[in-house]
Amino acid sequence: MRIRAQVAMVMNLDKCIGCHTCSVTCKQTWTNRDGTEYVWFNNVETKPGIGYPKGYEDQEKWKGGWKLDSHGRLQLRSGGRLKRLSRIFANPDLPTIDDYYEPATFDKDILVNAPAGRTDTPVKQPYSQLTGEPMSVVWGANWEDSLGGATGLDDPNLRAVSDKVKFEFEKTFMFYLPRICEHCLNPACVSACPSGAMYKREQDGIVLVDEDRCRGWRMCVSACPYKKVYVNHATGKAEKCTFCFPRLEAGQPTICSETCVGRLRYLGIVWYDEDAVLAAASVPESELLDAQRSAFLDPFDPAIQQAARDAGHPEEWIEAAQRSPVWKLISEYRIALPLHPEYRTLPMVWYVPPLSPVLDAAGAAGRDDTDADDIFHTIDDLRIPVEYLASLFTAGDTAVAGGVLMKLAAMRSYMRARTLDGSVAQELLDGIGMTGEQVEAMYRLLAIAKYDERYVIPAAHARDAAALEAQAAAQTDCSLDCEGGPGMSDFHLPQQPTRRRLPINPIRGRS
Ligand code: SF4
Ligand code: SF4
């Protein structure tokens, strides 16, 4: 066993209000530069919808992530090494700028310098930030904001469940899905990079780009099924979410977490066995969720604690793993789910799915909103269809998605009874197989947890900081890039001189 620590995140979708504060603060911190105008390391999508870039979840089109070949072996969907190499100068599986959106700016002088007494309203002309030409704004990273299904018919998640979801006005539903890089345990971006520029840090599993090694081949963009690697069109190099590692090393949460208005993000570390990653990513689709859950190691198991000590992990990290809210939500309460486990990258940002107002729905259906059976039956009639959530979070397994919703519904009903008259709804507890203490602890974490309960981040020790620096300087490969391991890439192109600013827009193609 090779025990590793991974910084991971859980987002509680019930609490996202779609304010985009996370996106804006992330942009101000990381992508407020030339060449990254169209880049949002953190974006918030409205679901159903096609997202950013358009239709990124359609892997038949984009060939992102992994699949099992005819022998049951894990293979990048974009093809083997030779196939990827043959496309190195003409990769057909890349989103164009129109799939993201053409970033615009405005001539604000028209407003500032409008002559006094003007009777008409001055109108700002948008200009392309890529070409400087006047343009019409026809799409954006957040174009579908709160539309609730207007573009939903093109949502790949709806194709499989279209017979269950009716876009009738009175049945329309929507929720927000904030997204960042998943810092996957089995990152397709790392494995696809021919230059060895993408890597996964050994210390905490954060996936980064070594800008000096990046040659701009953009294989990472194609390979990432979440489309969370971007090309800086000024430098021609790949850029991505860094999980705010300088903040984490100082014991602070990521900027998107720190500024989240809904306080819905949780950060913590989890242990995993690096030797078990390949097997967990290679099981049949119906077993993927369980395999991904069981990739995490129990931080309370003395044998795991000793293994962590033997591997040189500091006591502070061993203790932090036990307090990790991520471990609690994923493995203890089992209410957090991975986004698209079927991509087989083993994502490390998990989600508590949104629960429609279940007590209202029970009342509307003439059911008793304090009765366990009635509450659980109502799950099937919720406004956000279980089938849709299953397509997002459980590779289509409605039983698992419905089970999570039942826990959340039972928690609400149980806490309401406790608060109103002090009664204990034992029937509800029995229905979800949890104790009253567990439900109250889960409620506390989801509803009223304080800052230091939501973010449990051990600061990197001084000696780790030196090691991190040395690793960044000497980085040659992903830490998973061992014989037969998920990296599986021993091909590297020869070093080339670093390119300066390109006189072209590499997103559109070389001119
Ligand atoms: S989500 Fe992040 S770590 Fe995972 S494949 Fe995409 S860029 Fe790589
Ligand atoms: S800041 Fe929080 S509540 Fe606002 S959009 Fe982002 S994740 Fe949602």
Write the layout of secondary structure elements.
Elements: E1 3-12, H1 21-30, E2 43-47, H2 59-62, E3 66-68, E4 74-76, H3 81-86, H4 97-100, E5 104-106, H5 109-112, E6 126-128, H6 156-159, E7 175-179, H7 188-192, E8 198-200, E9 207-209, H8 219-223, E10 229-232, E11 237-240, H9 245-249, H10 255-258, E12 265-273, H11 277-281, H12 288-293, E13 296-297, H13 302-310, H14 315-323, H15 325-332, E14 337-338, E15 349-352, H16 358-364, H17 372-378, H18 386-393, H19 398-421, H20 426-432, H21 436-448, H22 451-454, H23 462-474
Parallel strand pairs: 1-15
Antiparallel strand pairs: 1-12, 2-7, 3-4, 5-6, 8-9, 10-11, 12-13, 14-15
This protein binds iron/sulfur cluster (2 copies).
Task: Give a description of the structure.
With 511 residues, the protein is α+β, with helices and mostly antiparallel strands. It has a domain at 277-454: Orthogonal Bundle (nitrate reductase domain fold). Helices cover 33% and strands 12% of the residues. The chain contains 23 helices and 15 strands. The protein has helices at residues 21-30, 59-62, 81-86, 97-100, 109-112, 156-159, 188-192, 219-223, 245-249, 255-258, 277-281, 288-293, 302-310, 315-323, 325-332, 358-364, 372-378, 386-393, 398-421, 426-432, 436-448, 451-454, 462-474, and strands at 3-12, 43-47, 66-68, 74-76, 104-106, 126-128, 175-179, 198-200, 207-209, 229-232, 237-240, 265-273, 296-297, 337-338, 349-352. The protein has a five-stranded mixed beta sheet, sandwiched between helices. It has a two-stranded antiparallel ribbon with strand order 2-7. Strands 3-4 form a two-stranded antiparallel sheet. A hairpin with a 4-residue loop joins strand 10 (229-232) and strand 11 (237-240). Helix 16 (358-364) packs across helix 17, helix 19 (398-421) runs antiparallel to helix 20 (426-432) and helix 19 crosses helix 21. The model is unreliable at 475-511 (pLDDT under 50). Residues 181-184, 187-189, 207, 224, 226, 228-229, 240, 345 line the site of one iron/sulfur cluster.
